[in-house]
Design goal:
The protein has about 220 residues and is mostly helical. About 50% of the residues lie in helices and about 10% in strands.
């Protein structure tokens, strides 16, 4: 729907600078408050991850950030320790799983996910460590979902637009059906966000994220 439209030129001069500063200040405030308030829950989840499947508590995945620069995106580990090897083996022997992975870069019934990890993903609790990413400046609270190298081709000529802002913990995709939407729709939502990006729009998306998380809309 939105892919047929061109992305408007980014804001320039004082307006762009003011918007960026306002969003960064809001990011810092929100991430500090979230990390302080959620610290007991974060400690509990960290212990639960280790007890349920001994190994690293956090998974720092290599993602593409603003300007095309790679960064480590933090999440609670939801998969078995040898997840990458298990994935390669699965895609080699299961054509249906391979086709689903090629289409969405996700598997709805991913055998690598631990029982606790499935709950963490369904509730989006696995993404809470990303507030640390926001605090250090590699992510924003609101923005496109951070992508990996193999997803660049899916953005095509819109990849430069993706790189023009910091990826976010939440965004239009998360409050618009998430995994129930196609990847093409996800790109379109990112472009729509770039056209409407402002502190007010970010706050609106944050508020919409709350019921989306509780209802587990489109999560898997």
């Amino acid at each position: 729907m939105y892919l047929s439209k061109t992305v408007q030129a980014p804001m320039e001069g004082h307006q762009a600078t003011s918007t960026q500063i306002a969003i960064r200040i809001a990011d810092i405030i929100v991430s500090i408050v979230a990390l302080v308030i959620l610290s007991p829950l974060l400690l509990f989840l960290a212990a639960a991850v280790f007890i349920s499947d001994p190994g690293p508590i956090l998974f720092a995945h290599r993602r593409i950030g603003m300007g095309g620069i790679y960064f480590r995106c933090f999440k609670f580990r939801t998969m078995v320790v040898n997840a990458e090897t298990r994935l390669a083996e699965l895609l080699e022997i299961d054509p249906e799983a391979r086709a689903e992975w090629m289409m969405n870069h996700k598997l709805r019934n991913d055998p690598r996910v631990t029982p606790l990890g499935r709950f963490l993903r369904k509730s989006s609790l696995d993404e809470l460590p990303q507030f640390a990413n926001v605090l250090i400046g590699t992510m924003s609270v609101v923005g496109p979902r951070p992508i990996v190298t193999s997803e660049i081709a899916r953005y095509g000529r819109y990849f430069a637009a993706y790189c023009s802002v910091k990826p976010g913990i939440t965004g239009l995709w998360q409050v618009s059906g998430r995994n129930d939407t196609s990847y093409c729709r996800r790109v379109a939502l990112d472009l729509l966000y770039l056209r409407r990006r402002s502190l007010t729009f970010n706050l609106r998306i944050m508020l919409l994220t709350i019921p989306a998380v509780f209802l587990a809309s489109g999560s898997c």
